[in-house]
Amino acid sequence: MPGGMASSEDEEWKVLEAFLGMSESWLNLTGERTGGNIGMKLKSKSGWFEGGNGINLVGLDLLPAGLMETGIYKVPGQTFWTWTAIDDDNGK
Q: Rounded distance, CA 39 to CA 44, Å?
């Protein structure tokens, strides 16, 4: 990748999150990163439950998909979740 960046998908998310104003202390976390109000900046301007719409700052227009848990669909209109595949020290 340009600039010597690692090729992991997480590094690509970090570039976007930094661009949108996430602090370095949040960027260095693994797992869920919620700092910098990034979700609001990525969410679509409509379609979210009870006024939870975003501002769609960069044009991704993320829509809520809800959550499937133990075969039951929950929280429609309230959740968008993403993750990356990163190997741990054991290559898993």
A: 10
User: How far is Cα 74 from Cα 76, in angstroms, rounded to an integer?
Assistant: 6
Q: Give the global pTM.
A: 0.66
Domain spans in the chain, listed from the N-terminal domain onward: 7-74
Q: What is the pLDDT of residue 18?
A: 95
Per the CB < 8 A criterion, the answer to whether 68 and 81 are in contact is no
Nearby residues of 66 by Cβ (< 8 Å), 6 or more positions away: 73, 74, 75, 76, 77, 78, 79
Residue 39 main-chain phi, psi, to 5 deg: -55, -45
